[in-house]
Task: structure prediction
Amino acid sequence: MSSKAQAILIGSRVIVLDIEKARELFQRGFFGKFIGIDKVKPDEVSKVARPLELSLLEALYLLDEGRIEVVDISGKVLSRDELLEVGRKYIANFDLLYEVYRDLRSRGYVVRTGLKYGTYFAVYEKGPGIDHAPYLVHVLEPGSKLEPLDIIRAGRLSHTVRKKFILAYRDKIYGKVNYLVLSWFTP
Amino acid sequence: MHTLEFRESGLLVRDRALISRLYSQGYGELLGNELLLLPVEVMYLAERGVLDKELFLKVLKTYVTSDPDLWVKYLVYRDLRSRGYVVKGGSSRVDFRLYERGGWKRGQPAKYYVKVLIEGRRIDLDELVQCVNEALRVRKELILAIVDSLGTVSYYRVEVIPPESKLI
Result:
């Protein structure tokens, strides 16, 4: 018997219907969001009986990690390439976002969407509901230009919760994901 | 008042007493028996009355043609200087070297590079990365000095994170 969770791709959404698997994905790594519940404390997960929605980035990562298999609504299993194509179709810059997502996860962070903070990613050392506040990570496309205003805005935004904010980019020479950490500085 | 000689990159001081006074306070670079002051240094010293006050406009007018951002750089220079820091010229990529308080007097190297950014003017990501890397090569930290349209300066410190290490 496979211990992999089955996730169903519905349009641009990936849903885990099995309640036990849903809890397990959330508990081990804080993946996804229980439908209709914004915040779940880690010790309350066992009481949640709802499907879990994964982002396409999370779904691809979990597929790469061998923790889920993704099927379409007819039950056909999707290959990694097929899921990647879905990501590229719905999300601009999906490849770079995934590289950054994967890199942050590999450094041991819990990575969630930063949308409500106005950034791509919100990064936690232990997890949402445990950490006081996340670090905010912006992703810069190759060849980006930075407006000083963007830096100040991001700094102010981060300043309300954390003193540092992070710019992720792909290094031109080595092709790897790199980070610039900016913090407000008072001389 | 002392006469200064206008050169392409700054102004030369010949007066020995003035040289030793200015240099000990962290102004200029010694070139043999002479001291080369940056235009912003002369402007600052003129503003404070250490040098002839008339030099302020004269220097600004002379050097602004070759460096249109001279005024904005001056705002950053004067902001840091008036906070009690020694600030010296940077490199082709960054604008200034900034010493820790007392660092210059103790003979320590500058701790920071300062790059001036101007509101409304974009900077290439590549350029920013090159500045950080250049700072890293000489074991300095990079500070961005962002000047808004009214001349207020905000500062940000930029660090690079090595591969596979923690971000924070």
